Amino acid sequence: MRFHIETLGCKVNAYESEYYIEGLKQLGYQEVGAHEPCDICIINTCAVTNTAAHKSRQKIHQAKKDNPDAYCVVVGCLPQFVSREQREALGADLIIGADHKNEVPQRIDRLVKTGRPDDLVEEVSTFHHFEAMPIRTFENQHRAFLKVQDGCNQFCSYCAIPFARGRERSLPAKQAVQVAKQLADAHHLEIVLTGIHTGRYHDGSTDLAGLLKEMLAVTPASVHFRISSIEMTEVSDELIELMRENQRICRHLHIPIQSGCDATLQRMNRPYTVEQFQSRIDQIRSALPDVSISTDVIAGFVQESEAEFETTMRNLEALQFSFMHVFPYSKRSGTKASTMSGEINGKIAKARVSKLLALSQALRLKDMARFDTLEVLIERKQGNYYTGYTSQYHPVRIKSDQPLSGRLIVHPDSLDENGYLVTLKR
User: Which residue positions does the secretion signal occupy (predicted)?
Assistant: First the structure.
């Protein structure tokens, strides 16, 4: 039977979809493209904002319209976050929330064989174990992903994730190290450790730095490790020292700041001030001069005045991030921020997003220009260009008539608005 999966939301959702795909293929199912007829439609949903939830519902309705005779499977944050009545209104044959995700392929197989619908959504308060979802190999990719953590205890005022994914929990270190070794044995050259709150990884006395140390010990020197995202309060001295000692940990940290104004950060319930963030960033850069630090920013948060936004712009430029992921604030029912007065006009928020994106591009080009030579992992061929990312997670395009693969040392030739245009170092 043929299946198609639509994935919305974060990189963790993308990882989980890859797990579903691998599991279904092992059971004999065939994956097809978005516009091909299929027997099973899977929608891996997001509900982090009202807009994301609306898009998830649209995808569900579109999938049912395009394939009216197919089984409809809805997975993830949307069904976890809404009421039973709202789940029933989705009209899906199989609904799975934040738990039982590691059973998705088998549950789909059972649905196909029995035809019996099922709703497997439980209260997030019952989630105390980490569901291992190891992906053994990423086809035709040098970069692999390994989910080691799920859930969040932070309860930022704008965020629904703690309600949709539950509290923090981690993959046992022994199991995580074993999967990392398997990915290395499958010839992946970079392993990205990912999670909802990756920096909060904890298994007994093993934290994220300890886990990385164990993974480095059991994998060959050709395999590098990357941290997908980490909070400022979680960049420990031990992690900084491990990165300083070992070039196999990529020289890039993505550390969300969300705002560059203390008053806004306080309304967001973020656990630091701009000064504290700056101080820690300075310490990291002092120990790791070749590190690039990127961030997330929310534009147009509730009550964000023009003065607060200008403060954010000034401080973000001073912090010298390598690039910024910018999001307009979008209300999420059930969060603290959704009850606050002072919502920002959409046009104003959109204009602020544009200004932040322009700043991000300028910061990216400035950060790229710091380096005389760069190490890049080639990922794919596009025409007669090869593309990939540097250790600092800058995009690279290499024009070459000769086949290129793996990790290369390059030097900048010229810059364009999308990243480096480079030639091989002679």
Answer: none
381-405: burial string, b at 16+ Cβ within 10 Å, e else:
eeeeebbbbbbbbbbbbbeeeeeee
* pTM for the whole structure: 0.90
> Pairing relation of β-strands 395-399 and 419-424?
parallel
Q: Quick check: 298 and 49 in contact, CB under 8 A?
A: no
Buried b (16+ CB within 10 A) or exposed e, 90-112: bebbbbbbbbbbbebbebbbebb
Closest CA to 297 of 266, 274, 329: 329
- Six token digits for residue 120: 């497997």
Q: Whats the size of the chain, residue-wise? A: 426
The CATH number of domain 374-424, selected from 1.10.340.30, 3.40.50.12780, 2.40.50.140, 2.40.50.100: 2.40.50.140
pLDDT in tens, 361-375: 999 989 988 988 889
Any idea which residue has 């919305």 for tokens?
8
Looking at the DSSP bridge assignments, the partners of residue 6 are: 43
Domain residue spans in the chain? Answer: 2-122, 128-250, 285-370, 374-424
| Antiparallel, parallel or unpaired: β 374-382 and 407-416 | antiparallel
**CATH architecture designation of domain 2-122:** 3-Layer(aba) Sandwich (3.40)
